[in-house]
């Protein structure tokens, strides 16, 4: 078997990385990780040392190419790039994300050991530290965390105390234990693995049932508007009036509930501090006792800084503004602009110029209830949502996934959004331009959703809540600290054995 692995190990790990994508939505084959991790560790064990690092990178490249290759749809269709150049840009992005995944494992290869204590301590911790780094390097891209695929599993409850990163740690720990049992059955008996599996699954299920928050006030009826505006015409000036009328007519087609949600950038304008259109809509909504919370790009001065921001604005009988904090790398802003800016200009590529919102923003009050909004993909930042929702009563996610068409991207995005309700034990209203729009309860369960790719609306009722989960209180700090401590201990054990 060693000879076969030596010859085909690189291809095997690339395929395993690609296969891992089936654990996420819409496939939801999360038990695959209990086969993938033992196979990955076996290939590394049987590979020559000179090839181990390269093969681990192959796993990461397969993982990201098949996991987020859907960004090509946006780059090609909306980035004004030839197909070949957009494919090259997609490959470069996936290769960079694979690099971020791979770098921590260079340290793991130095302390890797057959000793069970070192394997169980170091491998899950390195894995999670890598996922954590992708939340903040160049503002982060926290996509495809292992735990994301376990939203409907018994392990989801661990997110209430440690977020999705703790779910990832638990899964990789159990899969590593299984791997050790399969390769060294005399060291790790079947009772050890299945006992641990039962304990962690039971604990995860119990944690999800704990009433971390309590009902706060009366249930709130609301209406979600999904306008399904064609992205090709949305920002053309000649269609502006038509789009605004369509949005308003869809809102008023049937008598809506008092609280209405519009998607990200629902109004195709960049509103100044005295926008006539916003003023008109505000007066119109107020006369009909409506509280609308929707996306409007704004150009205004905040703390003396005048810039364009991706904002969520309260219209009508409520007021307030939230500015998106986590901008999309290479979409809404360019990382390392001094270095990469000239390259983008050389190829006449669009350069994002939006400004990030303040980290000190408070929840918006809409019809007397406090809501923590998230714009588009910043809902992927668990710590951000947990910290900002401590005093809010529910969550909202305003997005426009039209950029990615009928690819895996919007489905993965929706799966990630569901996790925020478990971590905060609060319901979420998710409103998008063309789907997936839904009401998600505090357990991450979808109570009602709209049909995708159609102009539609739906009514729902949510229960505002108060209180905090352990994860909202301490965020990722204990887990990350523990992971670093585990690595120090593992390194100490490794040196003592060596």
Task: Give a quick precis of the structure.
With 498 residues, the chain is an alpha/beta fold.
Explain this structure:
This protein is an alpha/beta fold. It contains 15 helices and 14 strands. It has helices at residues 2-19, 33-46, 49-68, 71-78, 83-111, 116-133, 159-183, 190-209, 240-252, 276-287, 337-346, 382-388, 408-424, 470-474, 477-497, and strands at 214-215, 220-226, 259-261, 291-302, 305-316, 321-323, 364-366, 369-375, 394-399, 428-432, 438-440, 446-449, 456-462, 465-466. The strands form three sheets. Strands 6-5-4-3-2-13 form a six-stranded mixed sheet. Helix 2 (33-46) crosses helix 7 and helix 7 runs antiparallel to helix 8.
For this entry, give a set of tags.
498 residues, alpha/beta, six-stranded mixed beta sheet, 48% helix
What's the count of strands? 14
Largest β sheet strand count, sense and barrel closure: 6 strands, mixed
Rg of Cα set:
24 Å
Helix content: 40-55%
- What is the SS-derived class? alpha/beta
Detail the poorly predicted runs: 345-350
Mean pLDDT: 90
Shape: globular
- The neighbouring-strand order within the major sheet is 6-5-4-3-2-13
Order of helices and strands: HHHHHHHHEEHEHEEEHEEHEHEEEEEHH
The count of helical stretches stands at 15
Strand content: 15-25%
**How far apart lie the N and C ends?**
27 Å
């Amino acid at each position: 078997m060693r000879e076969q692995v030596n010859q085909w190990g690189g291809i095997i790990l690339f395929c395993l990385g690609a296969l891992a994508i089936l654990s996420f939505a819409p496939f939801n084959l999360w038990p695959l990780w209990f086969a993938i991790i033992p196979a990955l560790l076996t290939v590394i064990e049987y590979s020559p040392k000179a090839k181990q690092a390269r093969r681990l990178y192959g796993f990461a490249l397969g993982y990201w190419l098949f996991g987020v290759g859907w960004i090509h749809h946006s780059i090609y269709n909306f980035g004004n790039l030839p197909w070949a150049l957009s494919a090259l840009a997609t490959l470069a992005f996936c290769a960079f994300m694979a690099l971020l995944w791979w770098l921590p494992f260079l340290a793991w290869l130095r302390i890797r050991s057959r000793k069970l204590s070192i394997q169980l301590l170091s491998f899950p911790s390195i894995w999670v530290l890598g996922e954590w780094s992708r939340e903040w390097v160049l503002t982060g891209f926290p996509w495809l965390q292992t735990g994301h695929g376990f939203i409907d599993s018994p392990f989801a409850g661990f997110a209430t105390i440690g977020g999705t990163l703790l779910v990832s740690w638990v899964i990789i720990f159990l899969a590593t234990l299984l791997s050790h049992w399969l390769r060294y059955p005399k060291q790790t008996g079947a009772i050890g693995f299945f006992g641990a599996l039962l304990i962690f699954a039971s604990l995860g299920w119990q944690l999800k049932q704990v009433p971390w928050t309590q009902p706060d006030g009366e249930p709130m009826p609301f209406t979600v508007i999904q306008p399904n505006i064609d992205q090709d015409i949305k920002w053309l000036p000649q269609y502006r009036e038509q789009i605004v009328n369509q949005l308003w007519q869809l809102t008023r087609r049937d008598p809506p509930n008092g609280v209405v949600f519009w998607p990200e950038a629902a109004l195709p304008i960049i509103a100044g501090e005295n926008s006539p259109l916003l003023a008109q809509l505000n007066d119109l909504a107020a006369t009909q006792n409506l509280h609308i919370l929707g996306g409007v790009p704004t150009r205004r001065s905040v703390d003396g800084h005048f810039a364009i921001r991706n904002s969520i604005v309260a219209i009508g009988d409520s007021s307030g503004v939230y500015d998106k904090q986590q901008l999309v790398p290479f979409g809404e802003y360019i990382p390392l602009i001094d270095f990469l800016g000239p390259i983008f200009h050389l190829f006449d590529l669009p350069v994002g110029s939006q400004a990030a919102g303040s980290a000190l923003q408070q929840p918006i009050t809409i019809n007397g209830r406090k809501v923590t909004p998230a714009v588009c993909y910043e809902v992927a930042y668990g710590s951000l949502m947990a910290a900002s929702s401590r005093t809010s009563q529910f969550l909202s996610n305003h997005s426009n996934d039209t950029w990615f068409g009928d690819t895996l991207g919007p489905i993965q995005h929706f799966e990630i959004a569901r996790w925020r309700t478990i971590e905060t034990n609060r319901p979420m209203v998710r409103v998008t331009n063309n789907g997936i729009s839904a009401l998600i309860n505090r357990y991450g369960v979808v109570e009602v959703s709209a049909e995708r790719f159609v102009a539609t609306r739906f009514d729902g009722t949510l229960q505002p809540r108060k209180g905090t989960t352990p994860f909202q209180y301490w965020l990722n700090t204990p887990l990350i600290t523990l992971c670093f401590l585990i690595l120090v201990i593992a390194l100490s054990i490794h040196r003592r054995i060596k």
